[in-house]
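To the structural biology subgroup,

Please find below the input and predicted structure for PilZ domain-containing protein, which we are adding to the shared reference set this quarter. The sequence is reproduced verbatim from the submission form. If anyone notices a discrepancy with their own records, reply to this email rather than editing the shared folder directly, so we keep one authoritative version.
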Amino acid sequence: MTRPVSAYAPRSERKPLYVKVVTQPALHGCWAVNISETGIGLIATPHTPSEGPREGEDVELSFSLPDSGEHIRVRGVVRWRHDASGAVAAMGVSFRAFEEADGVKLARYLASSHLQVVVAFATEQEARAVTAALEGVAKLHFAASPSDAHALVTRGDAACLVVCGQDEEQALALVESLAARRADADPSGAGPPSDLASRIVYCAPAAPERLVALFNAGRIFRALGPAPTREALHQAVLQAGREHGVRTEQWRMALELERSLLRERALSQKLPPAPGGRGGDEVGFRSAAMQRVMELVRLVAPHRVAVLLQGETGTGKEVLARILHRLSGRGDVPLVVQDCGALSETLLESELFGHVKGSFTGAVADHPGLFVLANGGTIFLDEIENTTANLQAKLLRVLETGDVRPVGGTQVRHVDVRVVAASNKDMGEEVRAGRFRADLFYRLNSFTVDIPPLRDRPEDVPELALYFLELFNRTLRRSASGIAPDAVDALRAYAWPGNVRELRNVMERSVLLSRPGEVVSRRLLPPVLGSTLALRNEPGGDGSLRARLDRVEREFIREALERHGGVLRRAAVALGMDPVTLGRRVRRHGLWKGDS
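Predicted structure (tokenized):
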């Protein structure tokens, strides 16, 4: 029996995980990079570019969790895949359904997992000191021998290795052997191993010149010397854990960015026709409010003016940014997108402006930065209100002069980049509250476009829904043949707190649930949409909270019974209820007169 993953589950926090993953369709050399309750990041070394699942295709995954060794089997869909140079493939998979209780096993593992730290060769006194320094912030694994240390470090989730003891040669030999193992036999064949390996905090004796050489070669993260203070060890291990996770995620994001840039270039050369035969910038925009928005976008697109898009989350700010880019005359150069709320200040600065080799730990090569990659084109900065005052000052300089200087560098490069920023907050209020620099706001505020929420333009909903239906028919290889009138009524009646993004998710779910050639009806929509319509259309009904909740509960139960062919036990599993309790409520609502 499989347990489905809710289509509306919030995206949970990613945690580093480096374990072997078996896939079906088979993909050679596949390893996990990170994992959450809703998805997993993978790297692989396919024998051919066509090997394994492609983007939009279903995939079955099987892997074991570190520590407990519990086996996880799950079905999912490939959300994105990129085959980089060097025969390395990276992909992101969203989970759909777990086998049996495997979803519970994964959730338990993620909820209970701490920063995993391996401590090698510690004496009893050192073990007590390390335990006191890291109590409550890390789970410690002690290794008495080099083989134990190797086994623990390579188990899949150890972010840091603390090397202790009084035997200098033994400690240095462990560091060198781990470095040699990464260089000669990266288990996945899909690196870079320096980003996936545990960070080493060295607390054993060694000659200073030897430690400097190891540090410069990137083989140790910190050298604290024997008997470090509790605070020094605490801070070093926490920094090692953060740096390990950040660099692994940065490498994955670099591959995803490369994929996006290549795709954007391909799309700019030949844009596919939009559903209904109209231009892609007009699909779904039939309300007077959105017609006005499109007039503003067409007006400002040809001019090199910074644009600020304001609107609630999910209203389609990135879609408008892409339309603006296409109409700007810069369509032959990729649009670069960066979510400013996804990264810390240091990492975001590195991503936007670049860095030079050696400017910080982990900077093993020069990185040009997104402004340089977007030279001649457009950069879209989403959630710009999340930037810090320091970063806002640097953004202002780029807007005013076009000069970009990488982190740790001295050479300034001039770029010609159109900046489109977006926020789901009132930026004027952010300025008045002192959370955003006034000078940068006024520079961005030269042309502001306010995007109305979907609930204020219900006339756009049916056409947007049809657009998404045709989109997911193509990407998911389904054949839903349209939207029934009762479903259209339910879509129009709903308030759409998640705006266009929520509508997209609803249509994706409906297309996935549809049978070949089936028209999408209310049966395929989430129960909350049907209950909203029932409440709105019920004449003279009791308006009390209890009555409304009863009607919503009845609609949820009716939908569950319908989806599962009237089988009470299956409906109870889907609703997360006890079958006996569900049976009582089914009778109370008059949905089933038989015996349970």
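Summary notes: The CA atoms of residues 542 and 548 lie 8 Å apart. Confidence is low (pLDDT under 50) at residues 7-11, 185-194, 266-282.

Regards,
Lab coordination
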